[in-house]
Amino acid sequence: MWLKPDEILLKNAFKLWVTEKDNEYFVLQRRRGYGEGGGGLTGLLVGTLDTVLDSTSKVAPYRILHHTPDSQVYWSVACGVTREEIFQHWEWLQQNIMRTLSVFDSSEDITSFVQGKIRGLIAEEGKTSLVLEDDPEKFREALLRFEKWFEIPTEEKLVTYYSCSYWKGKVPCQGWLYLSTNFLCFYSYFLGAEVKLVISWEEIWRLEKTSNVILTESIHVLAHGEDHYFSMLLHLNETFSIMEQLADYSIKRLFDKEAFEREPALSDPLQITKRGLEAHAKSQQFRTFFRLPKEENLLEVHEGFLWVPFSHFNTLGKICLSENYLCFASQDGSQCHIIIPMREVVNVEKPDSGSRALTVFVRGKKALRFSEVRDFQRLANTIRSRCGISASPQHSASPEVTRSHVPLRPFSKAVSTEALMTVFHPQDVENLDPKMLKEKMKEQSWDIHFSEYGRGTSMFFTRKTRDLIVRGVPESLRGELWMLFSGAVNDMATHPGYYTELVELSLGTSTLATDEIERDLHRSLPEHPAFQSDTGISALRRVLTAYAYRNPKIGYCQAMNILTSVLLLYAKEEEAFWLLVAVCERMLPDYFNRRIIGALVDQAVFEDLIRENLPQLVEHMTDLSFFSSVSLSWFLTLFISVLPIESAVNVVDCFFFDGIKSILQLGLAVLDYNMDALISCSDDAEAVTILNKFFDSVTNRDSPLPPTVQQALVSNNGKASHVGVDISELIREAYEKYGSIRSEEVESSRKRNKLYVIQTLEDTTKQNVIRVVSQDVRFNITQLDELYNLFKRQHFLSCYWTMKSPALLHHDPSLAYLEQYQLGFQQFSELFSLLEPWAFCTYKSNLSLWVFRLIDENQDGLINFKEFCCALDTLYSSSFTNKLKFLFKLHLPPGYCDTSLLKMVLVLYFVELSGRGRIDLQAYLKQWQNEILKKEETIKDLPRINQTQFIQFSKTLYNIFHGAPEEESLYRAVAHVTSLLLRMEEVGRRLQEPSSPSESEKAAGTSPAEDSSTEQGPVTPEKWSFSFEQVLASLLNEPTIVDFFDRPLNIQTKLGLARVAQLKLKADKGKDSKGN
């Protein structure tokens, strides 16, 4: 690697370098302790210094220095990990530089020329380099160390690196932590003791910041059941943040493909950088806080003051800009923020350059004044360019002039334009009962709030807004405020006509999702009059079907019908659709899929909060998994399934304003309220009964809904013994006791627990697969566990450096356990070559393809774990007859393939695999039925093997016996069997000669014309063949061969070697392909 020329005063300080080559202008040196001889004690000291110190000497054991005869100063110009690499640089200097230097008159000119040439080479390399870092030179050196120490394929993208201590037992090892796209690596070398650690991100169960008596602050990593601690990091928070993002990125890409596909910014694993991860994390926080669409990215952040008219003072905060939104959030504790869509901005003015202020005019005669903005000119220009406004300060065009509007598509007649509550329970204006009067007072409070803080998309969100939410939202404003708080109002405004189009496209379609929707339609709030009529049922059907059509990855999941029913009560049909989009895709990510990962993660977060806030309950119930199971419906339906509808809508009010934080707070409040009863209960069933009775007793005393709609009045008949609880008081208590829980802490806990939840699901999958496979093989559970880990890792190795891996494209967690992880031909051949017992099948050989085709029973171009294990079990543990039958079938179709057809077969496999679309469940059911009915194959069912196939069969036997202690006797035995079979075939052919021509023609399947033509030419190879019975009988007469195949084989040794060699084989293969 060429280095930026750096001055070195002593070319051989402390005799740490040995000169290998030199000439008039250059010196090639080797670091003492590397290469031949090892260097003794000096070598140990040098190795230790190289690891602890961050210097070029540590980077590589070889270097080239430039000097001139009349100077004592040396310049480092190149370094290398291997002799071959450094000698290539040396030869280049000899051929391209040495001849030129003779034309210069002075040493200064020579040095200047060499330095310029080396910098030019580095710049040329940088044009194609993927490294985009603040200090490219140091990063190049770190990348070289990374590749040298860990032998990882060159495609692996190093993201960043840090100096730190790794605790091995009670002893810290000072070294370097390397974070790449797919691996966490650590290296340390101290006085001859080398510590090397390589952990794949998808193997990590826990990643968290910890502290104890010995380690004041460290990063804890749990992987493979082992704890790893990293401390003494200069930038611990930054390091942890990058590690957290890389782990989350890996989990999404390899396990949670649905979530990953929603983030195109991180689609290419070869383009991940530290800067890119940091920008992605900031954009994610920005979108989450302001409830913005997933397409928005944080472009600029400015600090400044915003004039707040309702408080009559300037509040300090941050101004954030994305592609389509201008947002502001206060930093002075006032909890004030505002979201301004660019489509609403009419004009931007700068009063004077001295004040560093600007005024943003919004539709509705509203103006926002920002002051003390350092780069106010840039901010103003960015807003203008995003809104398409002229830079002229006199510009004051109307909204109609500043931008052209997309014509609204007329609503389909089938789409309802009214909220169902408006249709089935219109408010009686003249009704003056106490509940209606209280409802009117709520409406007046909100009218005052709108007059002070604004209304619609440009409303200020403050503490007062939250206070009003906690008291309860008026029935008439509920739909409007849900749209505003969730951000759905922006989605709907920027997609006019989208829902109507979806409804037209989706109606009449028949899929698994639509079948499930039809089944659940009448189970959605069946007590409510709106869903006892065709109006409500039809609206619910349209919304759910349209969403399933929009997002087939989710389609339809249970609980979506209950949530959508409540949305339709208070929002118009199109608004209910966009509210469902906001909930499923932003506010409750990964909740509504086959594995409900998001809900399981939030249950884990809930358990953590119980431990922190309810210690008395934890002392009594040490196993908190009970609360996870009982609270699942709370999270999935936002308490709608357990609370009466008139009370549940108040919870939904809080959810749309505060997100999942409000659900967690309410869950804690429910447990706190029932603390004494839960502590005194004797079993889980009693605890469930206590909670169910509590939820039945919750009422909404302020609800203006009639008795026909309210559920609590109906359900509480005969249950007056349980004291009723008002939902407003319960929510207020939740905010008072647990309102200190911060959204940032919840998000951090989500990330931490997501690793554990997904790994737990993966472990369950593994246990189920092993239980099924163990019934068909002789490997023990421990061996199957190790085989599964290797198989799964091989699957991931095919996915690390590309997004087009067939195995990754067809990975579907919703499939049967055995089908979730599968290997294509290349991945299978690499792993099989490491594990098969006789080293007869390298990953480059044709035999790999034949084995692959033989065990690929459904011919789909992918091998599952059961097929893989059954093949290995036959070779390791089966009888002599079964092993021989496997090898015999290997040389028959579909396994055997002529060498000339090899490339064609591979192409056909690739085309078949790449052409696979959505999973055909009927095809899988048919396949499973065939497997159940399949009869066991006997040796008489096997076809005969022809001459070409038998020759290849003999070659395979020679390959198997190669290197065995009794190799010569085995070779002789094979030769003897071959000659015996040929003599038997010759005798058989002679016995058939006297038969009549017609019989021989029938036996041969040829016509007389074909027979005569055959007699004239040479005898074709197809004229003779052997049955399996003949081959088996012949080989049974050779005790040496029988003893060889009957010899016990232990796969444990192979498993240990495969764990070490698996990644190295991938790296070596990558180097080979680059070399070719």
UniProtKB/TrEMBL annotation:
Residues annotated as domain EF-hand: 843-878
GO MF terms held by the record: calcium ion binding; GTPase activator activity
Alphabetical UniProt keywords: Calcium, Cytoplasm, GTPase activation, Metal-binding, Repeat
GO biological process: glomerular filtration
GO cellular component, one term: cytosol
InterPro entries listed in its UniProt record: EF-hand-dom_pair (IPR011992), EF_Hand_1_Ca_BS (IPR018247), EF_hand_dom (IPR002048), GRAM (IPR004182), PH-like_dom_sf (IPR011993), Rab-GAP-TBC_dom (IPR000195), Rab-GAP_TBC_sf (IPR035969)
Sequence segments annotated as region (Disordered): 989-1020
Entries under Pfam families matching the protein: GRAM, RabGAP-TBC
Compartments, as annotated in UniProt: Cytoplasm, Cytosol
Record domain Rab-GAP TBC: where: 472-659
Highest taxon of source: Eukaryota
Its biological purpose: Involved in vesicular recycling, probably as a RAB11B GTPase-activating protein.
PANTHER family recorded: PROTEIN VASCULAR ASSOCIATED DEATH 1, CHLOROPLASTIC, TBC1 DOMAIN FAMILY MEMBER 8B
Assembly and binders: Interacts (via domain Rab-GAP TBC) with RAB11B (in GTP-bound form).
Protein name per UniProt: TBC1 domain family member 8B
Organism field: Oryzias sinensis (Chinese medaka)
